[in-house]
Write a structure and sequence with these properties.
The complex is a heterodimer of chains A (656) and B (185).
Chain A: E1 34-36, H1 58-70, E2 83-84, E3 95-98, H2 103-109, E4 114-120, E5 126-133, E6 139-140, E7 148-149, H3 150-162, H4 190-199, E8 207-215, E9 225-229, E10 236-240, E11 247-252, E12 255-262, E13 287-288, E14 298-300, E15 305-307, E16 310-312, E17 320-327, E18 334-336, E19 341-344, E20 348-356, E21 367-370, E22 374-375, E23 381-385, E24 388-396, E25 404-412, E26 415-426, E27 437-439, E28 453-457, E29 467-468, E30 485-488, E31 491-493, E32 495-498, E33 502-506, E34 516-522, E35 530-533, E36 540-541, E37 546-547, E38 552-553, E39 565-571, E40 596-600, E41 605-606, E42 610-613, E43 621-626, E44 634-642, E45 651-655
Helix pairs in contact in A: 1-3
Chain B: E1 15-17, H1 31-37, E2 40-53, E3 60-73, E4 79-85, E5 87-89, E6 92-96, E7 107-114, E8 120-122, E9 129-132, E10 138-140, H2 168-184
Antiparallel strand pairs in B: 2-3, 2-7, 3-4, 5-6, 7-8, 7-9, 9-10
Classes of the chains: A mainly beta (656), B mainly beta (185).
């Protein structure tokens, strides 16, 4: 490998939340090109079984993972569509994703599921990142419960490639843990988004929480995990105090937060965040701003630092939650884990946990719920077993429209513990029928076309109040709105709008050539995959034309002059002659590969002057049509027909 | 294992402990796994470190030399050299998240695995590294992802984190016992 220009000086600080130490960052953050070695996945792993499960699409998984980061509208991040390669690791500047069984890489992997190997310059600027999957595991993009979710792991590893270290928030994508069949890390959490927005900011959307972590003697505490959680939404963001002097400063969106701190001696330890035990202080108890009895809300304003005072009791807390799990059914068998506990929203559940320091004299009043859930009064139970306590609480979990997090704070007999972001509330599974997806202008649901704007109708598909998608600074429509995403054959689709009952989405161009496509709505919980026919073109017309002469809607009061042009806005004309990326705002005029004819009510057929994409927008087409000079005044109907014979609905145009 | 005896539904009686999350995208190991995968178990002090390229010149490795005080299991040695991916060499920085870090002078217990090229790493990344404090008690570097010790004896085994704070003597005895049982097989 070619040596790089400068030596690197190791930073003494561990500032920020999930940013790496030493702090590394990309300078190609608006156009990060990865190469994916797909062929290397199509062999057996070290255990003699296929490295990927049947039907797994490595490239689609990579695109989906990249789109999670591309969809952060408050960050200047854009992963370009990955290209395929035969390389196993990058050249000095290429970033490669591969399944590499060469001996040195296997040694680097050890028992890891995947690693990101990042090369950087002295100033911390990243030269390249290679991501390698373990030879001992099996990966999947098809939801196989016994395999590791490739998209989730890549989303995590791509975070490392951006310069993120591990998060202290249990539910974060950048948290250190995953397991077979788990997919929630494919969804970026507020903590991950805060990292991206802080290191690659767009504007000044975030404020900062600042201070110095101390104990009650005034000693600065190094390596404290500090969490800020919105008690209404449950959004939680974590940070760490400096390993030099205990100061902290981390970014959060404007809002009101409970802020607390905990030592790295629980489920998150120093080694998990690339620190050694000697670099952090752990001889102190968790503390919350305002105190556990009546925590105070910390109000954060965009662009402004908000100081927070935290003074922790000296000594290690005897209270610790080691494992937890939940079930809604008494008598049911279920599993408990370290890390976060996932709970379906809309239910009352038994939250069961193995802990120290919580005897039966504890009551539910010793717990505080932070986030959108409540504790059932009088529901705490505890029984001792071999030095541990097996405990349970009943929790009322709300129905949620997207993956939501929550925390438990414990204060008993002068001792405290926190389960920071340790509960994730899952939304009910979204669903939609096969005929519930169609052209957004005509609502024809016979098939979808590449690049078409489609409307989907169903239930539990998004937030109760609809939200609109947005274009990133790189000119791409985002693939996620409030944690909602839609995949066609695993390819994420750009979203115009998401609500519980309706999603408007651009059908990826990648479905071109297929006879049908498998569509999944993902809100943190996947819908059942629905198979939908694909056609080269399925034209649908916006119900009103626009007069070219005055750029106003064509109406009875604003008819077009015979011989003048009208613009028919459409969608579903199919792929353009010159390919553009899915979600990309069309850079210029680009005619449809499928010729279009327009049929007037008189029966005459016309060839439009132009039929293709609309510049500056994604999925929208336009047809520039000259109205024949001989057209009689008044209302005339028209429809369009694509080369494949697909017809639009009929609309009216008024002629002078 | 005893169960809840309250009037509330005794659902916890049916809880089963699953192999939980894989830490740091690294698979978790139990203490039994740790010993079973170790080719050598030593304690000692970290004396120096340096960086060099790997055998295939793909990665920079940071090497840590450990002066061995005690060989708990495996081949006798006065020093061992640990290799962890990442470091700075030839003007280039390389980073692999969660690579195990050591500090000079650190007193450690290491559960070592030898790779085909001869390099040694701790089993399960930081899970195979314990530090020893001045009162001779050991401390695990493991975070989330380990099993509860009160279920030891189940197929899942002993949680590494549960060993935090036991004496060096107790840790080494447990390791020797498991290692000898393994060798005897």
């Amino acid at each position: 490998m070619k040596p790089l220009a400068l030596l690197f000086a190791v930073s003494a600080l561990s500032f920020g939340y999930v940013n790496s130490n030493p702090r590394t960052y990309r300078t190609d953050n608006t156009n990060i090109q990865f190469l994916v070695n797909v062929d290397s996945a199509n062999v057996n792993n070290a255990n003699g079984v296929p490295w990927i499960t049947p039907g797994t699409d490595v490239l689609a998984g990579a695109i989906a993972a990249m789109d999670s980061w591309n969809s952060v509208t408050t960050a200047n991040i854009h992963f370009a569509i990955p290209q395929t390669t035969t390389l196993l690791e990058g050249t000095p500047t290429n970033n490669v994703i591969s399944f590499d069984s060469s001996s040195e890489v296997v040694q680097a992997l050890g028992s890891a599921l995947a690693v990101t190997i990042t090369s950087y310059n002295a100033d911390g600027s990243i030269v390249k990142s290679d991501i390698v999957f373990s030879t001992k595991e099996q990966f999947s993009t098809t939801g196989d419960a016994s395999a590791l979710d490739l998209q989730s792991i890549l989303t995590h590893e791509l975070g490392h490639s951006l310069g993120s270290s591990h998060s202290g928030v249990l539910t974060g994508t950048m948290f250190q843990a995953t397991d077979a069949g788990l997919t929630t890390q494919a969804h970026l959490k507020p903590d991950d988004i805060a990292f991206a927005s802080s290191l690659y900011p767009v504007g000044n959307a975030y404020g900062t929480i600042t201070g110095t972590m101390r104990d009650t003697t005034g000693k600065a505490l190094r390596g404290a995990l500090i969490s800020a959680e919105d008690p209404v939404s449950g959004q939680i963001i974590g940070g760490f105090s400096s390993i030099a002097d205990g100061t902290f400063s981390f970014s959060v969106p404007p809002g009101s937060y409970y802020v607390w701190a905990e030592p790295l001696n629980g489920q998150v330890q120093a080694a998990n965040v690339y620190l050694t035990a000697s670099e952090v202080d752990t001889d102190w108890q968790p503390v919350i701003a305002g105190g556990f009895a009546s925590p105070s809300l910390v109000n954060v304003t965009a662009g402004q630092p908000t100081p927070v005072a935290l003074s922790a009791p000296v000594g290690v807390s005897p209270i610790q939650i080691d494992y937890s799990g939940a079930t809604a059914t008494a008598g049911a068998s279920f599993e408990i884990y370290t890390g976060p506990t996932s709970i379906a929203g809309g239910e009352t559940v038994f939250f069961v946990f193995i802990a120290t320091g919580l005897p039966s004299t504890v009551t539910d009043a010793n717990f505080k719920a932070v986030g959108p859930f409540t504790i059932v009064p009088g529901s705490f139970r505890s029984s001792s077993s071999e030095g541990k306590y097996q405990c349970q609480l009943s929790l009322n979990m709300p129905s949620v429209s997207e993956l939501t997090t929550a925390s438990l704070l414990i204060d008993y007999n002068g001792n405290s513990a926190v389960f920071s972001g340790g509960i994730e509330v899952l939304p009910a599974a979204p669903s939609f029928p096969a005929n519930g997806i169609g052209n957004a202008f005509s609502f024809a649901s016979s098939a979808v076309a590449p690049g078409e704007i489609a409307a989907m109708f169903g239930t539990n598909m998004g937030p109760a109040s609809g939200l609109f998608g947005a274009f990133t600074t790189a000119g791409y429509l985002t693939d996620q709105v409030e944690g909602v995403s839609v995949r066609f054959d695993g390819i994420p689709a750009p979203l115009f709008y998401a609500a519980a009952g309706q999603i408007n989405v651009q059908v990826p161009y990648e479905v071109a050539g297929e006879s049908e496509t498998s569509v999944v709505v993902d809100t943190g919980t996947d819908s059942v995959a629905v198979s939908v026919p694909v056609s080269a073109a399925v034209p649908g017309l916006y119900p009103a034309a626009v007069n070219f002469a005055n750029n106003l809607l064509n109406t009875v009061a604003n008819p077009v002059a015979p011989g003048d042009y009208v613009i028919l806005y459409a969608t579903g004309l199919g792929s353009p002659l010159t390919p553009i990326d899915t979600g990309e705002a069309a850079p210029g005029a680009d005619a449809s590969a499928n010729a279009v004819t327009v049929t007037l009510g008189s029966g005459s057929q016309l060839m439009p002057a132009y039929a293709g994409v609309t510049q500056g927008l994604a999925g929208l087409d336009q047809i520039n049509l000259q109205i024949p000079a001989a057209t009689p005044p008044g209302e005339t109907s028209l429809f369009v027909t694509s080369a494949n014979g697909a017809q639009s609905q009929t609309i009216s145009v008024w002629v002078q | 294992m005893r169960f809840l005896t309250s009037k509330a539904p005794a659902i916890a009686a049916l809880v089963c402990i699953a192999i939980p999350c894989a830490a740091t995208l690294i698979k978790e190991v139990t203490f039994e796994d740790l010993v079973a995968s170790s080719t050598q178990i030593v304690s000692g002090h970290v004396t120096r470190s340096w960086t060099s390229w790997g055998s295939e010149h793909k990665l920079i490795w940071t090497r840590y030399e450990v002066a061995v005080d005690d060989v708990i299991a495996g081949e006798p040695a006065s020093t061992v050299v640990m290799s962890e991916p990442g470091g700075v060499l030839d003007g280039q920085g390389m980073r692999v998240e969660s690579a195990v870090r050591y500090t000079i002078g650190e007193h450690v217990v290491l559960f070592l695995q030898q790779y085909p090229g001869g390099d040694k790493r701790t089993v399960g990344w930081s899970q195979g590294k314990f530090t020893v404090d001045e009162s001779n008690r050991v401390h695990s570097s493991a975070g989330a992802g380990y099993l509860p010790n009160h279920l030891s004896g189940t197929p899942n085994g002993t949680r590494i984190g549960s060993l935090d704070g036991i004496t060096y003597r107790e840790l080494s005895q447990r390791a020797v016992e498991l290692y000898q049982r393994r060798v005897a097989r």
